[in-house]
Design brief:
2 copies of one chain form a homodimer.
Chain A: E1 6-12, E2 16-23, E3 28-35, H1 41-56, E4 63-70, E5 73-75, E6 80-84, E7 89-92, H2 94-99, E8 106-110, H3 111-123, E9 131-136, E10 140-146, E11 149-151, H4 182-185, H5 187-199, H6 205-209, H7 219-227, H8 231-255, E12 259-263, H9 271-284, H10 287-292, E13 294-297, H11 304-314
Helix pairs in contact in A: 3-11, 5-8, 7-8, 8-9
């Protein structure tokens, strides 16, 4: 081990929290993962602080800063989590709370923004100007790189592709809109769709795979079922891919990015989701930008959030 | 008249062409307007060249460059109009053709990009970082300013808000997609909707206003009818505003701009269109970016395209 500076990257999601040490090139050191405690933000802060100190151990002098990517509407300037449906929080002064527990500079941003920065540094090696990273997890988020910089927009909200409208008269969303893309391709929503289909008589391998406990459905199980040829799992991925493709076709015509990087649980379905996305994109967006965009699934997968958060902290 | 440098701005649309002299601050000198000849691009080039020379007159030494904003998918680097449904052109080397007729450097860009630059320089005085300009004309285009620069994306296509999908199973569009926003709020499409309603028995002041010739319907007539209380015209503007609002709500969540500037024929309906847009935006996008965005109708209106094209040529 050299004594090069490190940061601690934190990926704070509604289901789980991941921590890891990250060097300036985006190389990941030791990591740790645990479930997100429900409710009081202070419990989450305490848990992150304890795990962070354990992970940092004797390396405290090499730690330059802590970067946190959190699910939700973030104010990066003030370090406030304004609204996070997945965490169930509103106006939490997260940076202030964590600063009391950890003696390091703290950078807070949206989790998909962090992932986008991670993809830009580690996968694109900063060699293209414009990139969109789409996080396909419990929710659906996005982060935007424009001209080689993280683009945050007027209020730090930019990139919320999951809350672009797919069906104007569609399913009501907790954000106040209806028909949001996330309501059709989010992991929770796909699990709901499976349960709905089973209740209406559809048979599927998934019932057996979760031993009848449909609450235990995950994208991983859906992917395993689809790979075994399960018709329902395959159809749901096909539909989800088409719907994501409709949203991305709009984004390709509007943002015209060089790269689109997919990450998060649903992206682990690989070609099951990527093929219908690509087909729909070519069908629905202008030929020139559709042919120009490089669309692929991140190879950093689960680590992209930690990496990106850590890399943001290096730029602190 | 001082001898400050000027450019010639050209707004090349499917219906009409406008030319004007523009100074570096965006002050507009003499202008000229004429209908777009159909068919051969060379006829359009000749006509523009002749009008340009007439407008330039004795000021030829003060003319620095010519800027053209054209409707369609443009390659600004090569000066090619790749696809323009409104002009009916494909792969027209417009810059090369015009260079043969006019001895000035020529800058070609998308018309909505030019308008966005015009709005940014003249209306925003370059004081905000991120702006979206939406051109509501025969078609619906958009131009994006990011961090004070015109954002063109990977292939110069960025900003095509009119071809974001509003209804995934909606009206087929010439672009190959279906349910594009433009198919519901473009001037041609609104006129079609009026004709459909009249054919199915709806009475409206507009029939009389165009002396029974429904082909002569324009946004101006629809606006005049609405202001006289015509129920059909009011309802169609209300619906168009809601639909534009749905699209803009997606854009506000994705791009989180500081300003959204509306321009073009439909925008002259003023509050008839602006009120439903604003209401829908507040209902459907995240509260933070929705409250932050300044949404208004350009005061430069018909001149925004010329101004922007001329200003782009100043930066040549």
């Amino acid at each position: 081990m050299t004594s090069r500076p490190m940061t601690l990257g934190v990926d704070l999601g509604g289901t789980g929290i991941k921590l890891g040490l990250v060097d300036a090139q985006g190389k990941l050191g030791p990591t740790t993962r645990f479930a997100t405690p429900k409710g009081d933000p202070r419990a989450v802060v305490d848990l992150i602080a304890n795990h962070a100190l354990a992970l940092i151990g004797g390396k405290s002098k090499r730690i330059k800063a802590i970067g946190i990517g959190a699910a939700g509407d973030i104010d990066p300037e003030k370090g406030i989590i304004r609204i996070s449906p997945n965490l169930g929080w509103r106006n939490v002064p997260f940076k202030t709370l964590l600063t009391k527990k950890l003696p390091y500079p703290i950078v807070l941003d949206n989790d998909a923004n962090a992932a986008a920065w991670g993809a830009y540094v580690v996968e694109a090696k900063k060699k293209i100007p414009n990139l969109l990273c789409v996080m396909l997890g419990t929710g659906v988020g996005g982060g935007i790189i424009i001209n080689g910089r993280l683009y945050k927009g007027a209020t730090g909200t930019a990139g919320e592709i999951g809350h672009m409208t797919l069906y104007p008269e569609g399913i009501p969303c907790a954000c106040g809109n209806q028909g949001c893309l996330e309501r059709y391709i989010g992991a929770k929503d796909l699990a709901k769709a499976v349960r709905r289909e089973i209740e209406s008589g559809q048979t599927t391998l998934m019932t057996e795979m979760v031993h009848g406990n449909l609450e235990a459905l995950t994208p991983l199980i859906m992917t395993q079922a689809a790979r075994k040829g399960d018709a329902l799992a395959r159809r749901l991925y096909e539909e989800a891919g088409e719907r994501l493709g409709i949203g991305l076709a709009s984004v390709v015509n509007f943002m015209n990015p060089d790269w689109i990087v997919l990450a998060g649980g649903i992206s682990r379905a690989g070609s099951l989701i990527l093929n219908p996305v690509r087909r729909t994109l070519l069908k629905r967006s202008f030929p020139t930008p559709a042919k120009a965009v490089k669309l692929f699934i991140s190879k950093k997968d689960q680590d992209l959030g930690i990496l990106g958060a850590g890399l943001l902290a290096h730029d602190f």
